[in-house]
Amino acid sequence: MNMLAIDQGTTGSRAIVYDRRGCQLASAHREFAQYFPEPGWVEHDPEDIWQSVREAVQAVLQEVPAASIAGIGIANQRETTVLWDRYAGQPVHNAIVWQCLRTAPRCDELRSEAASLYARTGLPHNAFQHRQPHVGR
Q1: Range(s) for CATH 3.30.420.40 in the chain?
Q2: Is domain 2-97 in CATH 2.40.30.160, yes or no?
Q3: With a threshold of 0.85, does the pTM exceed it?
Q4: Are the C-beta atoms of residues 44 and 76 closer than 8 Å to each other?
Q5: For 25-65, how does the pLDDT look when each residue is reduced to its tens digit (9 = 90+)?
């Protein structure tokens, strides 16, 4: 039996199939567009992300039978955030990418709360953990 690894990264998605010994049997990579609506802002279209994953997986499954896959491991792009409409099953907006700086002013405001944030989340106060907009604020 084989393992399928899916690495959904910042600029593309990769699918790799490994055998029991860890030898690579098949690999595919599909890129997708990044959008910069304002200076310092970075977004992805969630449908583009999903399509890139599907295409990469379909490509490796043309080389390795799906029935031979015993498990799947998934890695994704850090703190990139997508807000979904639970009823429609559709994204509400483009994904806000972990590199986006649109919330930098709010991050600066949170510096005084760094110890409290660390106690609650286990994450240090830094740009990557606190660049995402806070829903409901």
Answers
A1: 2-97
A2: no
A3: no
A4: no
A5: 999 999 999 999 999 899 999 999 999 999 999 999 999 99
